[in-house]
Design brief:
Chain A: It is found in: Cell membrane. Chain A is an alpha/beta fold. In chain A, 57% of the residues lie in helices and 11% in strands. In chain A, the strands form 4 sheets. In chain A, strands 10-11-12-7-13-14 form a 6-stranded mixed sheet, sandwiched between helices. In chain A, helix 7 runs antiparallel to helix 10 and helix 8 packs across helix 17. The longest helix of chain A has 27 residues. Chain A is elongated. Chain B has a single domain, classed as ABC transporter involved in vitamin B12 uptake, BtuC. Helix content of chain B is 73%, strand content 3%. Chain B contains 11 helices and 2 strands; from the N terminus they run H-H-H-H-E-E-H-H-H-H-H-H-H. In chain B, helix 9 packs across helix 10. The longest helix of chain B is centred in the N-terminal third of the chain and has 31 residues. Chain B starts with a helix and ends in a 13-residue tail after the last helix. Chain C is α/β, with parallel strands linked by helices. In chain C, helix 1 packs across helix 2 and helix 10 packs across helix 11. Classes of the chains: A alpha/beta, B mainly alpha, C alpha/beta.
Chain lengths: 604, 290, 303
């Protein structure tokens, strides 16, 4: 019991303290002025948390957040003034409408790269502002919708009528708290991990079976709903809604709060929200110099503490931890690893057969800017086969893997998996069918721990139904996952770094993590792109044993590799590419003996 | 027909103004990958410098205009020393916030020092109206058009043929690689910032007499310039200039044919459409992903 | 006297009003000059402070129609001005106009009123266009307007916008009469025209203009070296009005509010007496630019 409550306090304690402090504001100050500053700060908190959901957690800079806020304001104002609709209708309409609007804007915009997405949302914001200004019949344009009534809130057993400011304050505090808790909850569920994965590396996430666009859209739509709700409350608080209620000034505040606060840091964003709504009010003492001083302070802060408030928090934490541990040596030194002590490596920790896939490639071609990278390549890989794909640099090996795994679309040709045409399918869909690859450039989710890397990979590879059904479940590890993960971590010598962030690991360790993630859920076809490049002999040994074990269990594998010794030793069949064409195909010893292969490799 | 020619000319001259403002923005973006939110305020600063030189110091326009460009080049050095040099290798968020902060400071400093009401700056060409038969145009606008063409030709040749220009392009393509082959990235950063500020100076010196000098004079034109930089290909200078003229013409066409209120919506809607079909802008190079 | 920045937005108006009411503890608020900020600040007046606010520049009809017992307006509303000004435009021989207005509450509100009041007098409104304030280049709009050959352009906008209009009208050689609201006759606009004679013939219906009957004008110039702008002048008369209210109701917050309802004074800008919507009806000034100078054609009593 004690352990649970102390863990709860560690995770949520600071939020509780903040909430209590916020709840006490109207007790200490009866002044409507201070309370209204508090309300403004709480509204900014809602907006900043939702902005951070899109910018910080899925990594897409969006200028559209104030638009959803404005949308919520107008929905509430128009429903209340024109149709005399009650509070809950306003909230429902604003949230549903906001999400719908987010989908309408997001579906085309997320087809763009993230640069263009940012600009697309900027254009959308400009257009939205023009519509609010010029659609006189509905928004009344710059004449504003005035006289928005402060609604009573029917709760079934009682009615709340927050007509006075302190009541408005508690009313909005409740909503802000709910938005913050929702954001914390998302972060602590599997959805939070998936968001982080998509932000860290969308290409890897796709090859793990995630659909990055759907996840970004989800974050965008949820954030839109949060902002729209904040808008409903703002409309009732301000009682007047104008086009300028959601102008560039709001965007500027959000940018400042999110970036000074620190990426994906709730405490940073909360602190910054409060600072940057209170600061302009405090600076009223400076009269006309107010905004000049505000700008200067901002400049000084960003230049002197460019890593944001979150960074300061972390420094304080490290300092406190350092004092507590009294200079005890920290950090984990790499443990020596005796490869021989692991007698038999089984791929999944248990005696298990893998039902390997049957891959058939015919007439595959791909050209970049006129240069043929792959040229009319046909290749069949039978279930359970381990094929080495070799060839000099630029012979089209990686492009072949890219075409098979859906990273690039081939210009011509056909790829079949177990008789089903999979040409042009996205890498996300292919991963779900059990066709998995690793990357030559070694991709891992840098801000996730080793164990989280494996958990995310496992999650993405489930069927779409299972993937989405479990997004809201906690991040705790299932038993089957724990077994697999423990086994892989143990046998790949990653035990001592399993809780470290993947970005902090050495190159060789990252290669191991990437490999572990690719086999955490048994694939049917595994495409390995130079897993051994640049790693030390111990790790090469490890890889060889794991590849052999997976092969032994029946997995279909294509291994692209330059280390010919390893390839010849592991593979039962070799395919040699040169300038995108198949040069030789067959038993390793025969292939290596072919004069044309020797010529291609040794340049005779 | 008269209306067609008139609007064509209106669109072209408006485009020239956007292009002059966009040039500096595109340079910083294209070469240093910095989105300078304070660029519009540099244009504003240049206009104020011109005002001071003309109205307070009492110089003639032909002396004040080049001097404005020179002083803005100096302001560029300061800008580099105080802000750019500190954020050049920082994440884009830091660059965005620091230039945004600078923009807030500059606008509000202008309000405090000069008041919110704008001022008039006189150029002798302002009151010379050229009558070209069916269309009329002030000589100052012709000067803007000529200034745009000449300065862009100079910029283009400079980037293409001078050693510094080549080094700037090298830094634009790959900063690390450029540093490895011995190109001083700080020097190139300084040069780029100074050239960008000088272009803002040129814009201020040429355009300000047409309108008025005030703290918020840059806001609207800067948004258009920003759109031009994006549509032109995310910092491709040539693309930005072409896009600036396209925007000018599009505005004139939309004002005449569709609606004055939604002109900006048409410009930004067009921008989004272009991005949907060409995500790297009109002149941006497609990047190979994967 | 305390100054508070309203940022010209509803939220800014609300926090500025509350700051004045609760922190600075003022007894009366003069402002805001922005309709959006005034509308945003008005609910704060109902939160128990009993302080009155007098606006002298916000035109939005919702300010007086809201029924807020603490909100007073010194400046004339659009409907009152339009009655006199439309007649004047007709009498000047104008058969058709094109309306060009700034796209804010002032421009929208005014355009709305004249689109009804002019046709009632058989003056044709050929079209109505809106521009964002600060738009530098109005030439494409004017080229389009000129194509419709109206007798006059009716312009609603800020002084800098007006100066651009006048200069670019000359550049394009568009020969139409100009009628305006919003400050075309002000020193600021004349200065920004470069050559003030470019404005010759323009007629503006103004809340306020310099007339010899106002000793304040010269006194102001003697003290500050410059003539007062119209909002400074109106603020001065608003202060005189407060003074009248204090005489009638006493120097307390409630007293001022009660007193304002009873004010019935004749100031140098005409009679000040608030009606039941708390709107006052001072004189309207018809001003013409003649030989590069603004001259008051006549002052019109409105009530």
């Amino acid at each position: 019991m004690d352990a649970i409550s102390s863990r709860f306090m560690r995770d949520y304690g600071w939020l509780l303290i903040l909430l209590v402090a916020a709840a006490l504001v109207p007790v200490f100050s009866q002044s409507n002025y201070y309370i209204s500053i508090g309300i403004n700060a709480l509204i900014i908190v809602c907006l900043a948390v939702s902005f951070d959901l899109v910018v910080g957690r899925v990594g897409a800079l969006s200028f559209a957040q104030p638009v959803f806020y404005g949308f919520g304001m107008y929905v509430a104002a128009l429903l209340a003034v024109n149709l005399e609709m009650g509070f809950w209708w306003q909230v429902i309409a604003a949230m549903a409408g906001g999400m719908l609007l987010a989908l309408v804007v997001g579906i085309p915009s997320f087809r763009l790269n993230l640069h263009a997405f940012a600009i697309g949302t900027l254009g959308f914001a400009t257009i939205a502002h023009l519509i609010a200004t010029n659609w006189m019949e509905v928004t009344q344009g710059p004449m504003c919708v005035a006289g928005v009534p402060r609604a009573t809130i029917p709760l079934g057993f009682m009615e709340i009528a927050p007509w006075k400011l302190p009541q408005q304050y508690y009313f909005i505090l409740t909503i802000a708290a709910m938005v913050v808790v929702a954001s914390v909850a998302i972060n602590r569920r599997k959805l939070g991990l998936a968001f982080q994965a998509v932000r860290d590396d969308p290409v890897l996430a796709a090859s793990n079976g995630f659909f990055p666009t759907s996840l970004r859209l989800t974050a965008f739509a949820v954030a839109a709903a949060f902002s729209a709700v904040a808008g409903v409350f703002a409309a009732q608080f301000q009682t007047v809604v104008c086009p300028d209620s959601f102008s560039t000034a709001t965007t500027v505040t959000l940018l400042i709060v999110a970036f000074i606060g620190g990426r994906a840091s709730l405490r940073g964003v909360l602190t910054a929200s409060i600072i940057f709504t209170v600061l302009p009010q405090v600076l009223r003492i400076a009269d006309e110099w107010r905004m000049v001083i505000f700008g200067l302070l901002l400049l000084v802060i960003v230049l002197s503490a460019p890593d944001g408030i979150e960074h300061l928090f972390q420094r304080v934490e490290r300092w406190r931890k350092g004092r507590r541990e009294g200079g005890k040596a920290s950090g984990v030194s790499a443990q020596p690893f005796a490869a021989d002590t692991i007698a038999d490596i089984t791929p999944l920790g248990a005696e298990e057969r893998i039902d390997g896939g049957h891959l058939r490639i015919s007439g595959l071609s791909k050209a970049f800017a006129g240069v043929k990278a792959v040229d009319d390549l046909s290749l069949e890989v039978r279930p359970g086969e381990l094929v080495g794909l070799i060839g000099p640099n630029g012979s089209g090996k990686s492009t072949t893997l890219d075409c098979i795994s859906g990273i690039t679309k081939p210009d011509a040709g056909r790829v079949e998996l177990d008789g089903i045409d999979i040409t042009g399918m996205s890498s996300s869909a292919l991963a779900k069918r059990g066709l998995v690859r690793t990357f030559q450039s070694t991709r891992v989710y840098e801000t996730l721990t080793v164990r989280q890397n494996l958990a995310v990979a496992l999650h993405g590879r489930q069927s779409i139904m299972a993937e989405w059904a479990s997004y809201l479940s906690p991040q705790s590890e299932s038993r089957s996952f724990r077994e697999r993960a423990d086994h892989l971590i143990e046998t790949l010598n990653l035990k001592h770094v399993e809780h470290r962030k993947a970005g902090e690991l050495s190159y060789g360790q990252r290669k191991l993590v990437q490999f572990a993630a690719s086999v955490i859920s048994p694939p049917r076809v595994l495409l390995l792109d130079e897993p051994l490049a640049g790693v030390n002999p111990t790790i090469i040994n490890l890889f060889m044993r794991h590849i052999a074990a997976n092969h032994g269990a029946g997995l279909t594998i294509i291994l692209v590799e330059h280390n010919l010794g390893v390839v010849v030793q592991l593979c039962e069949r070799l395919v040699v590419l040169e300038q995108g064409r198949k040069l030789a195909d067959g038993n390793p010893h025969d292939v290596m003996g072919t004069p044309s292969v020797q010529e291609a490799y040794l340049g005779r | 027909m008269d209306l067609l020619f008139t609007q064509l000319l209106n669109g072209l001259t408006a485009g020239a103004e956007y292009a002059l403002v966009a040039a500096g923005l595109a340079l910083l973006f294209g070469i240093l990958q910095i989105v300078n939110f304070a660029h519009g305020e540099f244009y504003m600063l240049a206009a104020f410098i011109l005002y001071v030189l003309l109205a307070v110091v009492g110089l003639p326009y032909y002396a004040a205009a080049p001097l404005t460009v020179l002083l803005m080049a100096c302001a560029g050095v300061l800008f580099y020393a105080i802000v750019i040099s500190r954020v050049i290798s920082r994440p884009w968020q830091i660059q965005l916030i620091s230039t945004l902060a600078l923009s807030i400071v500059m606008i509000n400093l202008a309000i405090v020092l000069s008041g919110p009401t704008p001022r008039y700056v006189e150029s002798p060409l302002n009151n010379v109206i050229l009558d070209l038969g069916s269309v009329r145009i002030s000589a100052q606008r012709v000067l803007v058009l000529l200034g745009t063409i000449v300065s862009f030709a100079a910029l283009y040749l400079g980037l293409k043929y001078t050693r510094t220009g080549k080094a700037m392009r090298a830094v634009a393509q790959n900063r690390e690689a450029a540093a490895v082959v011995g190109i001083g990235v700080p020097v190139i950063g300084l040069v780029t910032t100074v050239v960008a500020a000088s272009f803002a100076g040129l814009a201020g010196a040429l355009i300000a007499p047409l309108y008025a000098v005030g703290p918020t004079m840059a806001v609207l034109v800067n948004i258009k310039a920003f759109a031009a930089v994006i549509v032109g290909g995310f910092g491709n200078v040539k693309g930005a200039i072409v896009a600036a003229f396209v925007i000018g013409l599009l505005e004139a066409a939309s004002t005449t044919l569709i609606s004055t209120e939604y002109t900006d919506a048409i410009v930004f809607g067009g921008m989004i459409l272009i991005l949907l079909f060409r995500p790297n802008g009109l002149f941006g190079k497609a990047v190979r992903v994967g | 006297m305390v100054i508070a920045d309203d940022e010209c937005t509803p939220a800014g108006g609300a926090s500025a009003f509350r700051n004045l009411l609760e922190v600075q503890q003022v007894d009366v608020i003069l402002g805001s000059g922005c309709s959006g900020a005034t509308l945003g600040g008005m609910p704060a007046l109902l939160e128990g402070a009993e302080v009155s606010a007098i606006t002298y520049g916000s035109t939005n009809p919702k300010i007086t129609s809201a029924g807020n017992p603490f909100m007073w307006r010194m400046n004339l509303n659009d409907a009152t001005i339009a009655k006199s000004f439309s007649q004047y435009i007709l009498d000047d021989g104008v058969k058709s106009v094109h309306i060009l207005s700034v796209n804010n509450d002032f421009g929208r509100g005014a355009a709305d009123v004249y689109q009804k009041s002019l046709p009632e007098l058989d003056v044709e409104v050929k079209g109505s266009d809106f521009f964002t304030t600060g738009t530098a280049d109005l030439r494409s709009m004017m080229s389009k307007i000129a194509q419709g050959k109206p007798d006059a352009i009716l312009f609603f906008g800020e002084p800098p916008d007006c100066a651009l209009l006048v200069r670019q009208k000359r550049e394009l050689n568009i020969d139409v009469k100009l009628f305006s609201r919003g400050g075309c006759y002000t020193d600021e606009a004349l200065h920004l025209m470069g050559d003030p004679k470019l404005g010759n013939g323009l007629t503006e219906a103004a809340y306020w203009a310099r007339t010899p009957e106002q000793p304040m004008v010269e006194a102001f110039k003697a003290t500050y070296g410059d003539y007062p702008a119209y909002n400074a002048a109106l603020a001065y008369y608003a202060m005189l009005t407060v003074n009248e209210a204090v005489k009638a109701g006493g120097a307390s917050r409630e007293g001022i509010n009660k007193g304002l309802a009873e004010v019935d004074a004749v100031l140098d800008i005409g009679p000040i007496k608030f009606d039941e919507t708390r709107q006052a009806y001072p004189n309207l000034f018809l001003v013409r630019i003649d030989d590069g100078e603004s001259k008051v054609l006549k002052t019109v009593t409105t009530h």
